[in-house]
Design goal:
alpha+beta, six-stranded mixed beta sheet, 10 helices, elongated
Length: about 475
């Protein structure tokens, strides 16, 4: 932990780093940011903020001039960035990073046999770190470096080659996966079930790299399956995620990123600078990516039948007293309406009230504290009859009775004889006319007939005679 917080790199230092868009060559870059030993690099000939993240001890970065010294391809940087004088990082370029700042590789000796072009081996795919594939040595560089290509990917120009050191923990002798029960990605045209090393070597006329050339050291690292840690997603190296050790094979650790599918698992070395203990990001102030919560499967619930509500809500039953009161009110209003219609049918001299004006032209009846015209009475009676008939019909329907209204059978009808005012008496505007009503009850089965009433004038003449 203490060593990871001591870093000698400074903003503005130049170095060589692998080209992330073309992994078989190097590019010049400038240090932009250093956080806890993690370095953000800006490509010197890149566009805008084309960057690359790695640890300062990563095998992917080297001092300026390394590629030329060992024979590794490097991209020419004749075309430099257009914002070279504007970007604050490039304005601070003051020196190249010296070689002693980088991690030293293990010394190797080529006596007694060494790697040669065309030899077969097994290696972790640099573009898919969860796969171990059949690989071929394409070129032997100086200082123990090798250019290796993966057989599962075809490339005519060698753009898929990747540089590994001979002591790298990411290359293995043939049949390593078979020995440790790891799935091996075979060359094109083969399947994991049909691939056999002996048959493949015979078919291609090649040979495997000697097993003694590989690094077999296995430190007592103490990692066990199920342990939690914080690990860099090497396919997106700016991200550090919550991870779990899924499997341990010698010094190899298979890292599973919590919440992600197994296809994103990666193989890393137990001494990799890209794995950290829990709490490292919080200590350094680096953003930690939380686990991705798996989406819960949606279970569609069966649709419940919707109950149709009554249009007018819940009806309340009327009591017997309420029914009787409504019938009594209906009878009184019906009688008042009959008086109005009878008065209008009587011929004779007009009352002074009829000459008073359109507002006084209607007879007025006193009912409590309110004055109601005969026309209003007629309208109210008709509306009340309709409401009564509708209410009775609904109640009878609920109780299983016939829906026909019984209002005619239950209400008593009245014959009215009216005496109107004398022609000689003048009425004041707004004066209430007193009407004397004579009621005679008759059988409800008869229909009320007001057309045969005797006019008032005829009654007076009969009295005079």
């Amino acid at each position: 932990m203490v060593e990871s917080m001591k870093y000698p790199f400074r903003q503005g230092m130049r170095l060589e780093v692998v080209d992330k868009s073309h992994i078989s060559r190097m590019r010049l870059a400038v240090v932009d940011t250093v956080i806890g030993g993690r370095v953000r690099l800006l490509y010197e000939d890149g566009e805008n903020d084309e960057d690359f993240w790695c640890h300062m001890w990563s095998p992917l970065i080297h001092a300026v001039g390394w590629a030329k010294r060992v024979g590794h391809p490097i991209k020419k940087s004749d075309d430099r960035r257009s914002d070279l004088g504007i970007h604050p990082t490039f304005r601070k370029i003051y020196c190249d990073a010296v070689p002693y700042l980088f991690k030293k590789v293990r010394a190797v000796y080529s006596k007694g046999g060494w790697f040669a072009k065309g030899m077969k081996l097994e290696a972790i795919d640099p573009l898919n770190l969860g796969n171990i594939c059949v690989a071929t040595v394409q070129k032997v560089l100086l200082d123990g470096y090798l250019m290796i290509s993966v057989e599962s990917v075809e490339s005519s120009d060698g753009s898929e080659c990747f540089c590994y050191h001979a002591s790298s923990p990411y290359i293995f002798p043939a049949e390593f996966c078979q020995t440790h029960h790891i799935e091996l990605m075979p060359p094109k045209g083969y399947t994991p079930e049909t691939f056999v090393w002996e048959e493949y070597l015979a078919a291609t006329g090649s040979k495997t790299a000697p097993a003694q050339l590989f690094n077999k050291d296995c430190p007592n690292h103490g990692f066990k399956p199920g342990m939690k840690l914080e690990a860099v997603d090497l396919m997106e190296p700016r991200l550090i995620c919550v991870a779990t050790v899924k499997r341990v094979v010698n010094r190899l650790l298979r890292i599973h990123f919590d919440g992600w599918d197994e296809d994103y698992d990666q193989w890393v070395d137990c001494e990799s600078p890209d794995i950290y203990p829990v709490g490292w990001c919080e200590l350094i102030g680096y953003q930690l990516q939380p686990p991705v919560e798996p989406e819960e499967p949606r279970v569609e619930k069966p649709k419940e039948p919707v109950k149709k509500k009554h249009q007018y809500g819940k009806r309340r039953r009327r009591s017997a007293a309420t029914k009787a009161k409504q019938k009594e009110t209906l009878a009184k209003r019906k009688a008042a309406a009959a008086v109005a219609s009878t008065t209008a049918a009587v011929s004779g001299p007009k009352c002074p009230a009829e000459v008073a004006g359109p507002e006084e032209n209607m007879e007025t009846y006193e009912t409590g504290n309110k004055e109601v015209t005969a026309a209003d009475r007629s309208v109210e009676v008709s509306e009340l009859e309709e409401n009564m008939e509708t209410s009775e019909s609904l109640e009878n329907t609920e109780m299983g009775e016939p829906t026909e209204s019984k209002m005619t059978d239950e209400l008593a009808e009245t014959k009215l004889m009216v005496r109107t005012c004398e022609p000689s008496k003048m009425l004041e505007p707004g004066e209430i006319i007193e009407v004397k009503v004579k009621e005679e009850m008759f059988d409800s089965s008869e229909e009320a007939d007001f057309t045969n009433l005797i006019p008032l004038e005829n009654i007076k003449r009969e009295e005079d005679d």
